[in-house]
Amino acid sequence: MARMARPIVNFRRALRPGPAIGLSIIFLAASLLLTPAVENVGFLGDFYGGLVALNVIGIVIMTTLTAINIYQLIHQFRAQVLGARLALRFVVIFALLAIIPLSLVYYFSVYSLSRGVDSWFDVRIEQALDDALLLGQTSLEATKTDVILRLHRDATQVSQTTSPFGIIKLLEELRGEGDFSEMSLHSLSGRVIASSSGDVISLTPSAPDDTVFARIRQRKTYAQVEPLFDGGLQLRIAVPVISDRMGDPVRLLQGLYPLPLRYSRLGESVQSASDEYNRLKFLRQPLKLNFVITLTLVTLMTTLIALWLAIYSTRRLVAPLRELAEGTRAVASGDYLKQLPVHSADELGVLVKSFNQMTNQIRLAQEATANSQQQTEAQRTYLETVLTHLSSGVLSLAIDGTLRTHNTIAESILAVDLSAFEQRPITTLGDTYSQLTPLSSAITRHTQHNDQDWQDQIVLASPYGHQTLICRGTRLPETTDTLSGYVIVFDDVTALIRAQRDAAWGEVARRLAHEIKNPLTPIQLSAERIRARYLKHLTGDDQATLDRAIRTIIAQVDLMKSLVNAFSHYAQPMQLKPVTTELNRLLQDIIELHRQNKKINTFELDLDDTVPLVRIDPAGIRQVLNNLVINAADAMAGIPSGRLTLRTHQANGSKDRSVTLEVRDTGPGFPRELLGRIFDPYVTTKTRGTGLGLAIARRIIEEQGGSIQAENHPAGGALVIIQLPVSLDTKPTSPSDGITNAASSH
Amino acid sequence: MLLASATTTADFKILGGGAQITNQHLSSHAKLDLSLDPRSATAVVNGIPITICIDLELVQNKLWPWSITFLEWRYPVKLGYHPLSRRFTVTDQRKKSTAVFHTLGEALRQLDRFSVIEALPAAIAKKKNLAVRIRVRIDKESLPTPLQFMSVLVPSWNQQSQWHEWPVQ
Which terminal Cβ of chain B has fewer Cβ within 10 Å, N or C? Predict the structure, then answer.
């Protein structure tokens, strides 16, 4: 059972009953044949010993078989093989049911047998038989006495006869008269003198033995009843023949007297009955012993066969239950392919079939569930992929406003780790990050109002400027408590708005260039023509006034031309040529050009020598830096300890490899109200200027794949941070490229 | 008293014997000493006849340890008791005769001298190195069934002599 590896015994092998059942039938037949054998019925009596031996062998074999089976059961029970406990219990019950009745039957059978055999013998019967035998013996003695007397008379006659022929004739007469079957006369030396026999075939008379002669020598009579070989009794009588004549030797006269047939039969009958009784009496103990042994053998054999059959039946009964238990255990451990063999068509067979159907259905359901799970997982993966690659941030909230899930874009847009806020109220987002308070407040407001669909434009204020989000919310259908809630989708439209604004400004610049620049030249030409024609005709103050007015017109027209040119330049697409450039060297070159600027007291270069090469348009970067340096110099005008710091380092924590360039001054910094739109056109703090310098700088940086942002340093002063893309090349394209380009400031 | 002389030495012995072949006839004789176990003697008195069987074999001895048996004879003699006459009987099945004795000892002594003449096939009679083997035993198969089983367990029912062998003259 085995089982149970376990030292598990193979149940299937143990269930093969063929040889054991055959042996059981043989041994049972042998034990049943013992009964007629011990009673000596027919030919079986001759095989009693063989049957006993066969039974003993059978008992030894069956005992061994049963012991092995019981040992296996106990072993399986100790090894806690499945089904062994039930099997052992059944075997014990069956064994008790078999052994107890058999023991009782055995006990009472032995008792009854012993009493039955003893009851055969009775003192009165024994006495009667003894009396009958004695009666027969007495009757025989009477007959014998009569025959002895007769033979003595005959001996007297023989002794008086001297002629041999006379003796023969006399014996013949005496034999006939006395009903003897044979009469013979012998000398004491054993010689036959004369004889007479009724048996014509017999040539010689029956010779008396030495005992007879010994008696005669003693002058005594010998008389003996003798059983004949072919049945019947005869009297052998011998008497001495003593002659009156002197010198005659003593002779022996023997007469064989057959007892009458009726008399013999009666005597034989009495003797036979007595003989049989004595024989049975003598055989009483052996007979009882034989019966007890026979009964014991039969009982033992029957008990062992019953025990073995009990074990066999129990195993057959328990085997399906054990398999069922193993099957349920397998199913419990997830093996839904388990199928059990059906051994029978009874209730257990039906149970096994039902189990197989159940496991089959469970397997099908499991496969369906697995397929469904796979589909769900695929859908979830697909949805996650879609959400991950969406340009919109997505938040899902529970019905109570708890953040449930989010996508990576949401974290990217909001620049916070939203994982830390999952399973927490969305309000904690605003509590933790104040710049996100408008977003969390809007979401909380709409969820509290239980709005089905809503959309808001939310502006988030950050140190780097304003961030505009278009936020849309939808309440999920209430399927279950766990699935109901809200989905918030938001897009960062800051770049879009800025692009729209830039496009608008570009259009404005184009129109200005087109609408304003064209009339300026005629105005300037007309003013010069007026001065040329009419100045010579005026004198004094009029001449001076006209000349001054004409000059003013021309100067303002030039100013408007330069303004229009700046707009035109801003509206035109950038012609940038990115090349692999060593940034630190480029910065040093640019700073050298500004060393003579009196507005900047100190130049500080904090350049990281390990920064990689960047892929930029050096002329564009030079223009940007010129603008930034000039702006910084203007901001620090009048500040004695004005310091400009340029710092480069590799950007930390950025997915894209880039180099950071920081430009910091110690001026008053950016006005806070302008910080969010400092890179917009026409935003400037200068009284003179186009307000396009930082706007153009942002365009140059962004069109090269970089980014630029402005903030105020916590220690004071303005700080502009530029991210520039790292080049894949390991050598600069042209070390001196762009260095000689002229700087310009707007 | 009837059994006294029969049970002094409860054993079957063969004291001596001889054999010769004359005119294709095997003449064998042996001197036996038979006495019954008291249990067996009591059984005889109680009407259970005991068959004493004399086994005779004609064998040829070779150089190898075992011999070749040509002929086998069995001479069963039934020893019984006749209650009506109070006499012991010895019935020879072959001679179809019954002898009567006062005591069991006399009956056994009647069996002390064994002699027999058997005709032999000419082919066997001419063989050399012939020998006669003889044994006397109680024929257990002739016992009543209950005693047959007892004869397996009780040695007194298992009386028999050793095989005795002597060359044929």
Answer: N
